[in-house]
Amino acid sequence: MKFTYVIVCTGLYVATLAAPTLASAQTEAASTTGANPLAQQDKDFVQTASMAGSTEIDAAKLAMHNSQDKDVKSFAHHMLVDHTKLALQMKMAAPHGVTVPKDNSDTSTLDSLKGLKGKAFDQAYISKLGVEGHKEAIAAFEKESSNGQNAKLKKAAHDALPTIEKHYQMAQDLASKKGVTAGTQ
């Protein structure tokens, strides 16, 4: 799955998001009123971040059930807690009149994990969501942080980057410990 990372939890963050692909596959993320226009780049960021976060939360819930590995479950718990916080922060940063979608996970990514159990699940989860998803999220958040047009969203992206970078490092460490090569699952 590909995501051009976005913001946080229960609707914003992790997962490998391809902004154009994901944005078109989901409901319009950032609706605005005539009095409160939002630049397309910012709308795309809200959509991508919300989808990535929602996907990360739902995948973490799957990991709690489909994995037997305590390290994978610990990582998933971290993702669940942190992405939920990030989703709330994104919602608070959204300008008045902008809807931040929730529960808009990338179903193709989740579907690819649902039938897996044990080590097969762990490898796919670590690779797709842990490493690749966070790598892409960093790129999306850096882009919004540098080039976003809305000051609140730009700041939210900047403020979320350390958490996403920490998740990426955690995922890399977990992949190394479990012998998982990112992008191969």
From TrEMBL:
This is DUF4142 domain-containing protein. It comes from Paraburkholderia phymatum.
